[in-house]
Amino acid sequence: MTLLLRDEQDVIRANIEFHRAQGVDFFIATDNKSVDSTPDILKEYEREGILHYIYEGDDNYNQTAWVTRMARLAATDFDATWVINNDADEFWWPMTHATLREELAAVPRHNNIVQADRYNFVPVDGSADAFASKMIYRDKVSLNAKGRPLPPKVAHRAIPNVTVAQGNHGVWGFKNPEPLLNAIEIAHFPLRSYAQFENKIVKGGQAYERNKELGDSAGATWKGLYEDYKAGNLPAHYAKEEYSPERLQSGLDSGELLVEERLPEYLKTLNIKDNMGL
């Protein structure tokens, strides 16, 4: 599993422990200028021998280059069979087998890509205290910040010449790409607190402004939210996304929201050093 991270201390330990329990053998993590405890957490796993740590000092969010570097290392240096290009706020669930390892082992030989749909969990009052135990309500139909369908992510068979698209939504390098659908789904926790959200949008938006290589369409959602921040509208955007108890009940009654508690239940079974308040 590859991970590109910046200031993800509230979620990264749960992410690694979850996927480790799901059969991920090894992690390659690129830390892009984190100033919280993210590097310390990653280096704990590096000392344990299950993670390769890369520090990336550039500040232009050249995600495709950085993730491609990790995905190629997985194939050339770490004997990977499958590579899952992940974000810290995404938890990959197998849909027909008990673990990700079993799910990927069962993929037909002609399929070299697995496409995984995502669904968002909504922020609720107090979710910053323990995201996994508080954020148990998800959209029935998930949209991005611009109101468009949330794009899927992909895992792929390890090859040394792969290129990973910006956002991890696709890969190139297979002569005959054959994606498999409906094998894995992703629980996505993009908004866990206002402080986390603002930090992400400001640093990411500034990085995209510095990037002169990517086209205007790259990171369009992020850029739009950064413009909202500069106009003083980001708190209003977050408030529109956050759910009060009354709004939660209304969403449940209408069927727009579903309750899903399998992540906190699963995390409770793991021996996590700091237990995320579970």
Give me the secondary-structure topology.
Blueprint: E1 2-5, H1 12-21, E2 27-31, H2 38-48, E3 51-55, H3 63-76, E4 82-86, E5 90-94, H4 100-105, E6 113-120, H5 131-134, E7 137-139, E8 153-157, E9 163-164, E10 171-172, E11 179-180, E12 184-188, H6 194-210, H7 220-230, H8 234-241, H9 245-254, E13 257-259, H10 262-268
Parallel strand pairs: 1-2, 1-4, 2-3, 6-11, 6-12
Antiparallel strand pairs: 4-8, 5-12, 6-8, 7-13, 9-10
Describe the structure.
The protein is of the alpha/beta class and 278 residues long. It has a single domain, classed as Spore Coat Polysaccharide Biosynthesis Protein SpsA, Chain A, CATH 3.90.550. It has 10 helices and 13 strands. Strands 1, 2, 3, 4, 5, 6, 8, 11 and 12 form a 9-stranded mixed beta sheet that branches. Strands 7-13 form a two-stranded antiparallel sheet.
